[in-house]
Amino acid sequence: MKNQIYKLAGLVICTAAIVFTNSAKAVTTYTSKVTSGNWSAAGSWNVSGSGSDVKYVVLSGHTIIMNTNVSGVDTVSIFGTLDMGSNKTLTMDSFGIILINSGGTLSGGSSNTHIVFLGSAYQITGPFTTAQGNLITNGPRYATALTTTAASGDPQGSFVGLNLLPVELSSIDVVKMATSFQLQWTALGESNKSTFNIEISNNGTDFYFAGSVSGNEEINSGDYTFNIVGMKGSFYVRLNETDVNGNSKSLATKYVKNNVTSDAFQMYPTLIASSGQNIQMILPTSGTYKVEVFGFNMQIAAASSTTTYSNNEAVSFNSTDWNLNAGQYIVVVQGNNGELYKTRIMVR
Question: Which of 82, 125, 188, 255 has the highest CB neighbour count under 10 A?
Fold first, then answer.
């Protein structure tokens, strides 16, 4: 390694990764890029992603005018202003959502302007103006087929506050990985103000905070993972949720059987991208260590400077420092205390 390995304190490293999904499909996202523009103009949008689900985002300070009928939309997220135009219809898919974020406004339109959710017997009808009492502001609020049906299409009633939506789990599991455990869960009916907190206990009674994951930006379903590393012996994992008002509730507790009961050397991942990625390492015994990377010809491909670590100290570094080509290597970690650890890695 060209640079010294950076140290991270703590006996347990919990890293969080989030994968947002909407019905487990890839998403094509259109994000406004002009101060004012028409919906139908290609120059009004930046396009990213490629998928069957379609999402439109109107950024703060931008106004998009709906100058054409629009259909086949899964998500409309409004931070700026969406002017519904005159005599136009916005047709959302049956599981679609219109999200009015804080500072966002849905306005304009005429008595022949409609918002339709497939699957709902009702539609939301304009004009969306202050004079009519139907200017949609005061986000965060959202509308779906369910809220529209419940409000019989009333414009203000169809857009409800995020804090009215409870979070529920559709699945939760703990999966044993090569050198860690991964908490996996899917939450339904969530908001961008929700936070998931993960707690760990060795006895099922005394829990300590391990980390947190921010909720999905949409109100659909979110698939999440949270990696738990360095655990010794069986343990409990508790998943809590904190809502927009700061109220907390426990969603689930899982018991995890773990046969590792003593300190052990750990390095992960062992399948590494050639472009480089973060690597975690746990050293069970204190001492001064040097990390060397050998090719299968037993020639040194990379090496770090010697560094002193305490018992069970966890360290993090990036494989870009090794500058390795694709292939298989052996990582040798040797300490002045006589400890020697070896791990095979593959760079792809």
Answer: 82
